[in-house]
Specification:
Largest sheet: 6 strands, mixed
Order of helices and strands: HEHEHEHEEHEHEHEHEEHHEH
Strand content: 15-25%
Keywords: Signal
Pfam families: TctC
Number of strands: 11
Structural class: alpha/beta
Protein name: Tripartite tricarboxylate transporter substrate binding protein
Number of helices: 11
Oligomer: single chain
Family: Belongs to the UPF0065 (bug) family.
Strand order of the largest sheet: 2-1-3-10-4-11
Helix content: 40-55%
Radius of gyration: 21 Å
Shape: globular
């Protein structure tokens, strides 16, 4: 009995040590795929994920269902992806906050954005918009500086401490010398809702969330933190308005580290196919995202360089989340 117990224990240990992608990669996928998104339902990242999930699911021959897990500016849900089985059945769409900016400003981030993920490929590039209610007293950065010079208290909202939205606002303050009080929200959908309701007058939103609202006149855009978007060509960038900042911001798809190469290649091919679809392109542009596929290995190297560069930017701006 003791020998049998020891044998079973050894078998259990050996089983636990086996790679989690034991399924034949050539047969992948044989069941539904989970897209775990670190964004609130209805927010820009959520909309992007659902759009890609629909198209990629059809290409792969299996449905891709969505799970939303928010918190800590997207880092909690991203950590859940990092610790999931590396069998190809958990993927995510990550933005600048989760995979580039967070490691630049969180000294104790619970995951490594390079080592803990398999990068499937880039989705596209985008910007962050500085937006306001229609009756806000400023229409651009010059007007915002003039408003601040009057000594009036200015509050702005972002979708969380350490988010790209907060970072863009901090850069603006560092470069112009104006002072604004940060109001962090738990998720971008809640922030957009309070902006529309007039509970806050100024905010930073991702392009995917802000573009439809700007286009229909619900809110107005003061500036783009990043590149000028073809979706909102009349909105001038920070740099064009005298603020020395012109870095591009990217979205990419990820899976847990150690994903079998054949499975990674299938997911990458499905992503590339989705981004080549005319309808998907049009919808992404409508969300303020310029579709641009970049292979996973290349995007991983870009991320590594960007993290190092943004760490220096964060240090210069005095941005750190403890």
């Amino acid at each position: 009995m003791m020998l049998r117990t020891v044998t079973l224990s050894l078998l259990a240990l050996l089983s636990a040590a086996l790679p989690s992608h034991a399924e034949d990669p050539a047969a992948y996928p044989t069941r539904k795929i989970r897209m775990l998104l670190p964004y609130a339902a209805g927010g820009g990242g959520d909309v992007v994920g659902r759009l890609l999930a629909d198209k990629m699911g059809k290409t792969l021959g299996q449905s891709i269902y969505i799970e939303n897990h928010t918190g800590a500016a997207g880092t909690l849900g991203t950590q859940m992806v990092a610790t999931s089985a590396n069998d190809g059945y958990t993927i995510t769409v990550g933005g600048m906050t989760t995979h580039v900016l967070a490691p630049a400003i969180y000294p104790k981030l619970a995951y490594d954005p390079i080592k803990d993920f398999t990068t499937i490929g880039r989705v596209g590039t985008s910007s962050i918009l500085l937006v306001a209610t229609k009756d806000f007293a400023a229409n651009d950065i010059k007007g915002l500086i003039a408003l601040a010079s009057k000594g009036e208290p200015i509050q702005y909202g972002s979708w969380g401490i350490g988010s790209t939205g907060q970072f863009c606002a901090e850069i603006l303050m560092q470069q112009t010398g104006i002072k604004m009080d940060h109001v962090p929200f738990n998720g971008i959908a809640k922030l957009a809702g309070d902006l529309l309701g007039g509970h806050i007058s100024l905010a930073t939103l991702d392009m995917a969330t802000a573009t439809p609202l700007v286009k229909d006149g619900s809110i107005k855009a003061l500036a783009a933190c990043g590149e000028r978007s073809p979706s909102l060509p009349d909105v001038a960038t920070y740099k064009e308005q005298g603020v020395a900042f012109d870095r591009s911001l990217s979205w990419a798809m990820y899976a847990p580290a150690g994903l079998a190469p054949p499975i990674a290649q299938k997911l990458s091919a499905a992503l590339k196919d989705a981004l080549g679809d005319a309808e998907v392109k049009q919808k992404l542009l409508g969300l303020g995202i310029t579709p641009q596929f970049v292979p996973g290995d290349e995007q991983r190297d870009i991320n590594a360089r960007d993290i190092a560069a943004w760490k220096q930017v964060a240090k210069d701006a005095g941005i750190e989340v403890k």
